[in-house]
């Protein structure tokens, strides 16, 4: 059974009408599959060549793409598109097996997260504020750094989620998973100060801890803008954003405690491998200290 236009269009129709995927997803599948089909055609294949692939061919294609500078994540997505096509071809009885199964893309080295130096961050935070929005912003930033919150977690915090007496905050993270994180002394003081003046901004029935100048729950975009603006006004020499504060929290905590499992729990990571990137960051810091301090590591001038 052959299709004059090849199998790609019927497969995309299957994705649209049977699996009801979004247009953007179908566009991505189309780009991935047409790219490998063009590669096969340039090598002398026909429109049905994509249905006759074997594992050595797929490996050659992935190697060619990798040599062209394509990263591991993109290649893994292209392999996923190819596996999906072959699952459909198997269902239709057009191929005997799925040659894309078991082939992995080259790994892309994970980029180490940037962090702020602890002394630098404390210097930025330890400044008096009296403006209403500045009081709110300081409370948000203290909470980011004190408890390692994601941006989405901070904006979703309600008044009833924070327990000042127990110095604890209930957070709803990814997948609607709830965790309880500690709140440090400085953050509690900043939040308490904000709560004393919050009524000057907040609508009467608004449950959110942090509100915008309009009185409703603050928008993530507003938080990003205000954090960057706050850092600039405080004299920071780099762009500061909420995730940078979360990275700094994790790195400083791990550097001091060495307890990877505890940091995983505090960050709300489902997989400890996600948290392990901070061990590499910590080693990078130790390596820098070693290079600067060890008498046999110093370069000759």
Order of helices and strands: HHHHHHHEEEHHHHHH
Q: Order of strands across the widest beta sheet?
A: 1-2-3
Rough outline = elongated
Distance between the termini: 73 Å
Overall pLDDT confidence: 85
The number of helical elements comes to 13
The number of distinct β-strands equals: 3
Q: Radius of gyration from the CA trace?
A: 26 Å
Strand content: under 5%
Unreliable runs: none
**What is the makeup of the main sheet?**
3 strands, antiparallel
> Into which percent range does the helicity of residues fall?
40-55%
Structural class from helices and strands? mainly alpha
Can you describe what's shown?
This protein is mainly alpha-helical and 301 residues long. Helix content is 55%, strand content 4%. The protein has a three-stranded antiparallel beta sheet. The mean pLDDT is 85.
Q: Can you describe this structure in just a few lines?
A:
This protein is mainly alpha-helical and 301 residues long. The chain has helices at residues 8-17, 23-42, 55-67, 72-91, 118-125, 132-147, 151-156, 185-197, 220-233, 242-257, 260-267, 272-275, 277-293, and strands at 162-163, 168-172, 178-182. Helix 1 packs antiparallel against helix 2 (23-42) and helix 6 (132-147) runs antiparallel to helix 8.
Short descriptors:
mainly alpha; 3-stranded antiparallel β-sheet
Architecture blueprint of SSEs:
Layout: H1 8-17, H2 23-42, H3 55-67, H4 72-91, H5 118-125, H6 132-147, H7 151-156, E1 162-163, E2 168-172, E3 178-182, H8 185-197, H9 220-233, H10 242-257, H11 260-267, H12 272-275, H13 277-293
């Amino acid at each position: 059974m052959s299709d004059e236009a090849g199998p790609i269009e019927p497969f995309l129709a299957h994705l649209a009408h049977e699996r009801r995927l979004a247009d953007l997803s179908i566009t991505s599948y189309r780009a991935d599959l047409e790219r490998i089909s063009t590669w096969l055609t340039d090598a002398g294949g026909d429109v049905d060549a994509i249905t006759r692939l074997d594992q050595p061919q797929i490996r050659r294609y992935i190697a060619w793409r990798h040599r062209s500078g394509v990263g591991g994540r993109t290649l893994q997505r292209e392999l996923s598109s190819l596996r999906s096509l072959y699952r459909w071809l198997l269902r239709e009885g057009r191929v005997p097996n799925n040659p894309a199964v078991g082939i992995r893309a080259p790994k892309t080295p994970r980029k180490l997260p940037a962090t702020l130096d602890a002394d630098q961050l404390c210097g930025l935070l330890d400044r008096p504020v009296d403006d209403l929005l500045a009081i709110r912003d300081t409370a948000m930033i203290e909470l980011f750094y004190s408890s390692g919150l994601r941006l989405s977690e901070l904006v979703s915090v309600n008044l009833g989620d924070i327990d000042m007496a127990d110095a604890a905050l209930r957070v709803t993270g990814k997948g609607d998973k709830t965790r309880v994180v500690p709140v440090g002394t400085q953050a509690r003081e900043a939040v308490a100060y904000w709560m004393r003046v919050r009524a000057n901004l907040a609508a009467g029935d608004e449950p959110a801890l942090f509100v915008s100048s309009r009185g409703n729950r603050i928008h993530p975009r507003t938080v990003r803008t205000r954090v960057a603006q706050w850092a600039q006004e405080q004299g920071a020499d780099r762009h500061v954003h909420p995730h940078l504060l979360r990275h700094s929290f994790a790195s400083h905590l791990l550097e001091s405690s060495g307890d990877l499992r505890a940091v995983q729990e505090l960050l709300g990571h489902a997989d400890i491998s996600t948290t392990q990137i901070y061990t590499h960051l910590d080693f990078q810091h130790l390596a820098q200290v070693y290079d600067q301090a060890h008498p046999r590591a110093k370069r000759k001038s």
